[in-house]
Amino acid sequence: MINRETFVELMSGVCSPVTVVTATTPDGRPHGTTVSSLASLSLDPPLVSFALDRASRLLPHLQPGDRVGVNILGAHQRELASTFARRSGSGSKFDGVSWTLRAGLPYLPESAGWTAGRVERHVGGGDHILLVVGVEEAEPTPAAPLTYARRVFGTHTPLAVAS
């Protein structure tokens, strides 16, 4: 078995998309957190997956059957990624943030992409829970995505073509 530090260092080299996953409580309060584990899971039917820490405050609002929004952040949204990565104190992570409701879910304007769907199931995975989501709505944009690797934010750029 490898040690934790070696595993963390290895995985820090994997470039990840940066998203803010959102939900709304029955009384209309928004909840959200930064997630860097979004992955396409299936084309038919369209499914995505992401993982949340078992201690996540968002997890109780994303049980099977619940609706969920995924804001795929753009390269210009580093500050939002940091805002939603913090544990909220007495206030909401949405305080001072520009957002609207879209499909009944918190939506962050100017994101590089948006998807919404319904949690189909949870799959246990160590200290995290993998959520499988059936995609019901999607909007891609040409905006450069925000990525995270080696503990810093960045974005994707095409490699130069050798001549």
Task: Characterize the structure shown.
By secondary structure, the protein is mainly β. The protein has a single domain, classed as Roll (Pnp Oxidase, Chain A), CATH 2.30.110. Helices cover 10% and strands 44% of the residues. It contains two helices and twelve strands. It has a seven-stranded antiparallel beta sheet with strand order 3-2-6-9-10-5-4. The termini are far apart.
Secondary structure elements and pairings:
Layout: H1 4-12, E1 16-17, E2 19-24, E3 30-35, E4 39-42, E5 47-53, E6 67-72, H2 78-85, E7 100-102, E8 105-107, E9 113-125, E10 128-140, E11 146-149, E12 152-155
Antiparallel strand pairs: 1-11, 2-3, 2-6, 4-5, 5-10, 6-9, 7-8, 9-10, 11-12
Nearest-integer average pLDDT: 94
Strands ordered across the widest β-sheet: 3-2-6-9-10-5-4
Question: Looking at the structure, what is the overall shape?
Answer: globular
CATH class reads: Mainly Beta
CATH architecture: Roll
Percentage of residues in DSSP E strands: 35-45%
What's the count of strands? 12
Low-confidence stretches: none
Q: What share of the residues lie within helices?
A: 10-25%
Distance between the termini: 45 Å
Radius of gyration: 16 Å
Secondary-structure element order, N to C: HEEEEEEHEEEEEE
